[in-house]
Amino acid sequence: MNNIKKKIGLIVIVLIIISIYPIYKTAFGSKNSTSTANEKDAKVSAVNFDKTTYNLAIGNTYTLNDAISPNNATDKAVTWASSDTNIVKVEDGVITGMGVGTAKITATTVDGGKTATSNVTVSNREANDSIITFKDKNLEKNIRYSIHKSTGVLYKSDVKNITILAASGQDISDISGIENLVNLQTLNLGNNQINNISSLKGLTNLQTLYLEHNNISDISPLKSLTKLQILGLKSNQITDINALKSLTNLQTLALNFNKVSDIEALSGLTNLYSVDLQSNKISDISPLKKLTNLHYLYAESNEISNVSALKELTDLQNLSLQSNKISDISSISGLSKLNSLVLADNQISNISSLSNLNNLQFDLQLQSNKINDISPLKGLTRLQNITLSSNKISNLSALTELTDLQLLELKNNQISDINPLKKMSHLQYLFLQGNKISAEDQKALKKALLQLKNIYF
């Protein structure tokens, strides 16, 4: 009897060991290949929606964006379900309003069964919520992208909340239909083929508008956009800017590369901070004289000869008047806040009015003028870059104390003595081509300025 009990006991012990062995392997690890592979898999820990509630009109669509955590999860597949498909239909995250009511949209991860939900309320359209269309399919494509509605009929309610539209370089030629985006604040339509902007006249909430590089000649529709602060009209076919008179909130205006000759419309825009008038047909800049808030003025490549209007613009920091017909620059002697001044390619011989511009630091360009005396520059010790090429300069002694200079261009002058340059310990780039400098002096200068990156004789 005792032997039978012992045998039964042994059998029970063996059965217990067999039953707990898999548990032992799981708890204390196993070195087989299956376990190693599982360790490499990144399991899904959570799924979330960008919107947990959403309001939708019947017939409208919206794409719910699901975010899987962690980002490197191996299997990010998700299944979608609606609690009531008569109210909201869902397919691959795209929800469509079907009937009035509220339905719960659920996304469930294939890996781990994690869920996210969003309550979608569907309502009838308002009586005045009409269908809208866009003749230009490229414009329509950009608008659909901004509202996450790739297909289906577009209604006014779909676009009424758009405040920013970036559609630069999209091959757009017709902007009709954009008048329905009544809450637009920022609009970029640059680098397209637009010639008619009449559809913009009702977008009175616009604060920033870019229309550069188009084929626009008539800007009269802009006169009602009185909230505009930034307006970019570069590279168009504009001749008449009278429409700008009413835009008194403008702070930044780019009119460069057009065909403008009369800028009287700017005379009352006293909030202007930056104006670019480069490459037009302007000869009279007197309308600018009251724009005392101006900090940046660019008027290169025009027909300007008289700069007396600039006398009172004492807040100017950057001034560029390259390629004009200027000979007298005495009016800028009081512009003491200037840190960059470009007067290249004019008819200037006397630069004495520059002697008080002690804040000039970043750039002084005087190339291609008629200058022979540069002594007024001797006190401009903060200057880092000076271009004086193609003048009549022979004496460089005024530059001796300008030890902060990093770039100095003196090409095509009448220079033979370069000893004043030997103390320029910060100079990196030196251009002296087209002068009469001996080989011996060239060698001595190179030895004195070992820090130079480039020197040209």
UniProtKB/TrEMBL annotation:
Keyword terms of this UniProt record: Cell projection, Cilium, Leucine-rich repeat, Membrane, Repeat, Transmembrane, Transmembrane helix
Gene3D superfamilies: 2.60.40.1080, Ribonuclease Inhibitor (3.80.10.10)
Organism for this UniProt entry: Clostridium pasteurianum BC1
Transmembrane segments: 7-24
Protein name: Ig-like domain-containing surface protein
Record carries keyword Repeat: yes
The keyword Chaperone belongs to this UniProt entry's keyword annotation: no
Localization, UniProt: Cell projection, Cilium
A Pfam family per the record: Big_2
Record domain BIG2: where: 43-119
